[in-house]
Model the fold of this input.
Amino acid sequence: PSSGGGRRRPQGSTNNPSWDLVQKLKRARDAKEVFGLLDEYDEHVNGFVAASAMAKLRRFGKSREALRVFSRSKIRGVALNVVAFNAAISACGRDWEKALEFFDELRELRMEPNVITYSALISTCGNGGQWEKALELFDEF
Done:
């Protein structure tokens, strides 16, 4: 497909670099490639890109690295959204205290938690043996 000016865009490429980066992240073969893409396209990282990177890293069994993406994005001033917070909460595994910190931060930023937020948080609390807290969150939702 032509992009105007006589040059051809690579197949699957759009005029939205962040969306293109999300697509590249989906095809990444390992954690090293994920971080390489984030470094290469740093100026295009937004909340959705960060969430995509975290989800891909979790699929590789790299939850700790997924949380590094979240921290790195915050340090670099990326405007994180509820999708990114959901991915971070999901990456907490059994660390229910960390997940609750993310949940509190999300609320402090006046973002609205959604069903995915509560599901991830309840799951993390359950995995961490905090069934009473999980039930409390279920009732809150």
